[in-house]
Amino acid sequence: MAFHALIVDDSSAVRAFVRASLEDADFARVQEAETGFEALRLLAANSFDVVIVDVNMPDINGLELLAFMKKSPRQQGARKILISTQVDGPDAKQGTELGAEAFLQKPFEVGELRDLIRRLLASADEVSL
Amino acid sequence: MSDPRDNVQQEFLAEAQELVEALSRDLLLLDEAHHRKDRIDPSLINEIFRGVHTLKGIAGMFGYRHVGAVAHALEDLLDDLRLGRTPVGPHLLDVLFDSVERFQRLLALEDPQSPEEEPGVQEYIAVIRSIGTEPEEEEGDPLDRYAIEPAVLSVLTEYEEHRLRACIREGLQLFRLRAAFDLAAIDDSIETLRDVASDDAEIITYLPSMEGGNEDTIELVVLLASRVPEAELKNHFEGRYGSIEALAERTHLPTLPPRLTSIPSRAVSMGPPGEDDSNQASLRSVANSVRVDIRKLDHLMNVVGELALVRSAIGRIVERFKGESMHRQSLMDLDRIGRGFERQLAELRSGILDVRMVPLGQVFNKLARIVRQTAREHDKQVRLVVTGASTEIDKLIVEELTDPLMHLVRNAIDHGIEPADARTRVAKPPEGTLALNAYQKGSNVVIEVEDDGGGMNAHQLRESAVSRGLLSADVSHELTRQEMLNLVFLPGLSTTSEVTDLSGRGVGMDVVKTNILRMGGMISIASEQGIGTKITVTLPITLAIIRALIVTVASRTFALPITAVREAIPYVPADVRTIQGREVITLRGETLAICDLASLFGFRASTQKEGRFIVVGSMGNRELGFVVDGLIGQDDVIIKALGKSLASIRGFAGATDLGDQRVALVLDAPALFTEYFDGPDALRTLETRA
């Protein structure tokens, strides 16, 4: 059931962490973007099942990417997870309005990330049934 | 379930180190701006915040709880700073600077996950938390002055919103730039846009729109704040970057003088989707750098070494069959192939070497922090002047170099540069100057640490050496001034603080010297009392591969690094004289000490009368002739370390494979120099004479 995920974060350690967490045991196929621009390129050309994006990035921030995805026909099926400083802060509130379905606060654990994605994908299946 | 963190631990450490280095660099910029009372660039503070924020996040994910705790406290402080709730001040800067070293220490902990309290961490966090914040004064939300579409406001982060408010408060006008970018080259285009904007406008954010975009291009709406009149901005950006328009101000607010506003702006709506006809996944990546473990490069270099042996083998086959007419054509082909192979190999080798090189600026940045800190500790005024920061040197050397240079810099400020009042008394400017100069000289890199302080007192050094029993009084009177200065490198002399203060040079110079020598380098000193001191460190550019002169001594083969060789001349026994127990010759009017390697290594004295050579070695400001039996030629050699059991033998840097199953020991030129000139033997010779 390997799904297609995108992690957008300017920290290579975080990307490596997410990739290692998700690619273990064929859970997912992960693509990485270091900047908002790189993410735009990937979002314009691929459909993802899950997109994990950090809110705090230079230039194009995570909220802008969410807004972009909301309108992008390719990403209508994507579950969106926003990584923010505080899960109940103003950035997260705006994220919800822009279509983020779940939030992660750094530091997060391997199990936390996987459970979150499992839950999101399960609810997606229910909807489509 | 295996813990994926194990595999990416290295990734974490590399990134954490980079973040801490960037933090150090940015803090110096912040300090400088504050010091000069310049306007502090908000994006600088945001960069610092973002770095610490990232560090906090990854430290937590990788179990570095102390790093995480400190970063968390700092993050809150920096958040207040970037959102304008806390002003920049000297105390705040000190606290921030402290964090750099603390992070470095915490990252180096053997067991970062230990729940044990790390000494001082809680206290430091308390200090950070004690820096108070001032509530933001609010006299109506400045954002209300503009009719900004909710679609735009909804995608601004807290920080971007803060910048927007701050810009409006400062009386800047808001503009909207709409431009299409080629997705493949967007990074470069944005970089150029930033450059164009830099002086005239602050870029608040970039909003990707779907209007006018497709798979290859995208339209961005860039929100700018600027003081420059609209017409001028239009000139600046239009033509180059689509359309620019001023954002309409709400006219009913009297707080700002009325302005002429342009056509009401369109809402930033996401229009109909672009064409969607390709299923091809674009896996192009813009990341254009990778991190590599230096051991992997060492391995590659070893492979290159093996390939060089293959090349020599081909050459020998060609040699062996030369003159045999039967396979003449094949031999010529083989020879040609061999040469082509050699060229490619040289290319490959220099490519690998190139990857290992890093600019010395990395170290100089750390030193700049030390300068600031030491100057503050000793209440001295010091101006740092750096030249040649882009000079490149092997990454491994850079790592090893930091400590010795740090030591030299501390010493220069602590014991060299005088307090402001003392300087004024001798008609020097109150602010001392510390210069760090780096430049390449052949296959060496030279680094100078120069101060305009009080200089060293050579006679006091000599007296200290005598009173400590390191030198007999009689011998001490025969020393030249330079030799007296060199005493500072003697173990046991410069390790006492009392001497330190007298000699004008600090502790542990012997350790500095040992470390530099270990890297195959050399250190020399020049000092004038009242004028200043200059310490010169000469280092090979790389440790991975060296060009060596292959010589024979008593039928054995040795390699002498070419960086230490100035020239080779025929050895004429009749020219040798003995001065003060040392053999010397006269070369171009100068006296040159010579040293027979056969007797130095304890081989039976050479019976060979003819065809011997003197290889003139040069290290720093000293020269020494090595007498050898024969010269074989020059070769690029890869030094392999001697095994543990041989590691303690002085005079050899390692061994190398010359091909043909021949192994040569690589001579450690700096060690031989030291042994000859300042080693225990040299001193003993002086004692005997006395």
What does this structure look like?
The complex is a heterodimer of chains A (129) and B (690). Chain A is an alpha/beta fold. Chain A has a single domain (3-128), classed as Rossmann fold (3-Layer(aba) Sandwich), CATH 3.40.50.2300. Helix content of chain A is 46%, strand content 21%. Chain A has 5 helices and 5 strands. Chain A has a 5-stranded parallel beta sheet with strand order 2-1-3-4-5, with helices on both faces. In chain A, strand 4 (79-84), helix 4 and strand 5 form a beta-alpha-beta unit. In chain A, helix 1 packs across helix 5 and helix 2 packs parallel to helix 3 (62-71). The longest helix of chain A is centred in the C-terminal third of the chain and has 19 residues, at 110-128. Chain A is globular and about 35 Å long. The mean pLDDT of chain A is 85. Chain B is of the alpha+beta class and 690 residues long. Chain B folds into 5 domains: 5-130, Up-down Bundle (Four Helix Bundle (Hemerythrin (Met), subunit A)); 142-246, Alpha-Beta Plaits; 294-357; 360-540, Histidine kinase-like ATPase, C-terminal domain (Heat Shock Protein 90, 2-Layer Sandwich), CATH 3.30.565; 546-689, OB fold (Dihydrolipoamide Acetyltransferase, E2P) (Beta Barrel). Helix content of chain B is 43%, strand content 22%. Chain B contains 22 helices and 22 strands. Chain B has a 6-stranded mixed beta sheet with strand order 14-18-19-17-16-15. In chain B, strand 21 (652-659) and strand 22 form a beta hairpin. Chain B starts with a helix and ends with a helix. Residues 252-287, 495-504 and 680-690 of chain B have low confidence and may be disordered. The chains are: A alpha/beta (129), B alpha+beta (690). Chains A and B meet through helix 1, helix 2, helix 3 and helix 4 of A and helix 1, helix 2, helix 7, helix 8 and strand 2 of B.
